[in-house]
Amino acid sequence: MSIEALVARYGIAAVAIGAGLEGETAVVVGGVLAHEGLVPLAGVMAAAALGSFAADQLFFAAGRRFREHRRVQRVMRRRAFAAALGFLERHPVGFIFAFRFIYGFRTVSPVAIGTSAVPARRFLAVNAVAAVVWAVTFTLVGFVFGRAFQAALGRIAPGRHHVVIGAGVALAVAAIVVGWRWWRRRRR
Description:
The protein is mainly alpha-helical. It has 9 helices and no strands.
């Protein structure tokens, strides 16, 4: 089976999982793959939105379920956490909509929101809209970047395989970064 066939077969699922676990890198790479015609653009957008939405709902539920746990309570007593929760309580819709666009807040924020007084239905509704906007934005960044990348690569070495290899390397780097971050957090 060729690389193109593998990407075409599993690319959408990889984007959904990557959007939930890693975020922007997986979605941008999905946009590049859509530009190359290996996966449908609308499919990448839908997979990215679904993956992001599902992961955030899961993290929110974990925050809601474990907010009484002693470790979570200890974190909640910190001044920075209290300040973030204060902002969240004053501007819940804005915070829920914006956290996924701010590097470093993507995984922690839904857990923090889960510990707050924000109603689950409000989080669900705003999270759904924000996931779609985020997915469309970053997929289009990859799609537009794909054109520039293809033009630059075409001058160096024409051929679709180089783009696929570059996208694969980007996915591998993203997986390594995610694994390293997970390992580092687990060590703490």
